[in-house]
Amino acid sequence: MAGRISTVSAINPPISSTLHCTMRIKLAQALREAILSRSYLPGEKLVEGELCAKYQVSRTPLREAVVVLEQEGLVEIRSHLGVYVSSLSDKEIVDLLRVEIALEGLAVSQAAVRITGQELAKLEELHEKIHQLAGLPDLATFYQYDRQFHALLVTFSSSPTLIKILEKQLSKIYLSRFYTTLAPNRLQHSIDEHQEIIQALRSHNPQETGKALARHLESVIEDFIAMSQRKEEKQERREKLAEPNLDDHRE
Q: Which of 47, 68, 171, 216 could form a disulfide with 72 if both were Cys (CB 3.0 to 4.6 A apart)?
């Protein structure tokens, strides 16, 4: 009928618009994974031309994908300078871990009630593999294992609302792992603490599971703070040694 708007075209966006949105989402996913898999490190510049060539895209969808990552806190867009992977201060890292204690604690409490034998077996299989790393300085593999372990804990909550909320926070939380996994003995501590979480999940006790998760992340905070303090003390000693000795110039 003349003058009548097609219902189909009114509801569905143009194909070109849908494809553009899909490209932006896929690019954001690819860049997010590249950053979280340590292909790009905190403070590193992301060169637009190189990324366009790598992903075979134009600048427009790439810039839109970068905006998505900026909103997640993974990158910083610096005026006239470009795009850089976000660097986190010690305070930001501790704050992120506190957020993780609250949100992920709720997730594991729900997981304790709902988790299946098959899901427990998946966690235990992953945990068993990490034992092979004990005592070895393979930080990259430890980092990936830690990401996967915590992601599974959230998934096994079977709560779409919690998963959606945590998905928005986890990217920056995982970025903080770039720093926390460097703490001495963190690997062995995590192995022991992850085992306690699995045992609590096996008992299907939500309170104990939440407490086990909180103890683990508080331990991560303690190890990170101790490492940061040692670095500060070393820096202070270096600066003190570099100071001129005024007594040497006195007659």
A: 171
For the whole model, what pTM was predicted?
0.80
Phi, psi of 2 (to 5 degrees): -65, 140
pLDDT of the residue at 249: 53
- The number of distinct structural domains making up the chain is 2
In a domain, 249, yes or no: no
Which has more confidence, 21 or 13? 21
95 contacts 54 by C-beta, under 8 angstroms: no
Query: Which secondary-structure segment (H or E) carries 84?
Result: strand 82-85
Q: Which domain holds residue 118?
A: 90-239
* Helix 206-242 vs helix 186-202: crossing angle, to nearest 10: 170
Pick from 31, 60, 85: which residue ends a domain? 85
Q: 84 with 75: CB under 8 angstroms? A: yes
Is 1 part of any domain?
Answer: no
Residue 6 has pLDDT above 80, yes or no: no
Helices marked H in the chain: 7-11, 15-36, 48-55, 59-72, 90-114, 117-130, 139-155, 160-180, 186-202, 206-242
Which residues, other chains included, contact 88 with Cβ-Cβ below 8 Å and sequence gap of 6+? 42, 96, 172, 175, 176, 179
